[in-house]
Each structure stands twice: as C-alpha cells, then as structure tokens.
Amino acid sequence: MYSQTPADWRETNRKRWDERVPIHLASDFYDVAAFRAGEDALRDFERAEVGDVRGRSLLHLQCHIGLDTLSWARHGASRVVGLDFSETAVDAAREFAAELGLGPERAAFVTADVYDAAQAVPDSAYDIVYTGVGALCWLPDIQRWAETAACLVAPGGFLYLAEFHPLTDILDDATGSHLEHDYFAREAWVEEDPHGYVDTTTPTVHNRSVEWQHPIGEVVSALAAAGLRIDFLHEHDMTLFPRFGALEIRDGAYRFPKDRPRVPLMYSLKASKPS
C-alpha cells in the first residue's frame, strides 16, 4: 500500500535484509557453491556493456553479499570496493573475499548507508561505479543517490546501472498484463511480506518493507543533473526471477511466452564523467 514514508524506514529495511542474508546464502538463487567453484555471478549483458575492467577500480553500491563485486575482481578489476547497509551481508562478503585470497587492497567491503558512501569508502573516486539489480527501490531520494554516485566517479570514468524496469512495479503479479498501480506514484510502498524473491518457505520475523518506485525518466534526469553524460539506456525483455506467474525460462532467463507482446522487464544504462 502507498503511504507517507515512515520515520523508521531505514532500520525496518535493514532488519529485513539482515535476517535474509543466511537465507540467501543457502538458496539456489545465489548458488554460493557454484560461485565458489568459479561461476560468474554477473549477467551476460552486464559484462558486455561494462566492457573490460582489467586494471580499473570499481565501487559497488548496495553490494549485498558481494558476489557481483567479487566477480568483477575475477574479471581483472585492480581494486573492488563493496558498500552495503547490512553488516551481516558485508561480513559474508568479506568471508568470500578471504576465501578467494583477496586482501583488502584488492577487495574491501564497507558497512554504510549508500547516501554516506562518499565519506565511508576508502578512495575518493573510482573508474567505475556499479549498481546492480534490485537496489534503487530501497532508496527514497533518487536525486541524492545520483549526486552521491556521480561524485565518486573519477574523471573519464563512468557509472553503470542495471535494474528491474519500473514498469514491472505497476503490473499485476499473476499475469503481468494488467495495470494495477500508478507509474508516477511518489509515496512509499509499505507492505508485510514473509517471503521474497528467493525463498517462500523459511519462517521469518522481520517481514515489513518500505520501498519506492522510480520512473526511468527520473533516474536519467537525476544523473544528468549530477553532471554525468548518458551514453546509453537499454531496455531488456528478460528478468532474473519469476516476478509474474506467466513468465517462463527461455534462453537462460525469465521471459513472457513467445505468443505474448513483449514489455521491458529490466533496463541498463551507462553515464560517463568528462575527463
């Protein structure tokens, strides 16, 4: 339900994420065993769009348990830094880094709110600032996010964002074919959900969440206002989990059946800072 932003929104969300870290570590969705065996946690389109990261520094905002962050290190990034507001998630990320033999000079993880990133991370600027899927919905102020991220991009570097398309937030969960919510709503979305995108069976205590939807125009405009140049905005007809009951796995991702008109389910963008 839409409502005014509750004063405890940050702590509410932190408790939810802290509780779900061990659930995620044990889940097939994150497949920690495959990651430990060398499998890449990144999506094919992300690797193609970001390009060669060898010898470049990378900051991952809202990194969760660090699998994406450390995958960039495996691809040759000279230094990766992950930041997340869940200390439980950051502890898990540090353990993974240690298992891979990556010391803090190659892979560092910081517990902090994303809006405090400029003061919390060890370096003042990075060649690449990366934000992975499912991050922006937890932030109430996209302008402040864009300003924070942009200030951490080194001259000549870029921000890369991969996200779920905001169109998916307004469609019905069963079929993804009917409009049920307001695309331009700015109020907080507050709900009690004992499940999530990974596990629907494990009992949990902290089930309340506070989220926001951010239309693509708002995101692009915020980044441009923060001084970045938009290099591209791509929309994708696939997603990472069965958000809608009508989705099917095809070509390694969840998509609508071939006999249905396609709609964008994810998007990605790159925004550069002039040298």
From TrEMBL:
<feature type="domain" description="Methyltransferase">
    <location>
        <begin position="59"/>
        <end position="157"/>
    </location>
</feature>
<dbReference type="GO" id="GO:0008168">
    <property type="term" value="F:methyltransferase activity"/>
</dbReference>
<keyword id="KW-0489">Methyltransferase</keyword>
<protein>
    <submittedName>
        <fullName>Methyltransferase domain-containing protein</fullName>
    </submittedName>
</protein>
<dbReference type="GO" id="GO:0032259">
    <property type="term" value="P:methylation"/>
</dbReference>
<dbReference type="Pfam" id="PF13649">
    <property type="entry name" value="Methyltransf_25"/>
</dbReference>
<dbReference type="InterPro" id="IPR029063">
    <property type="entry name" value="SAM-dependent_MTases_sf"/>
</dbReference>
<keyword id="KW-0808">Transferase</keyword>
<dbReference type="InterPro" id="IPR041698">
    <property type="entry name" value="Methyltransf_25"/>
</dbReference>
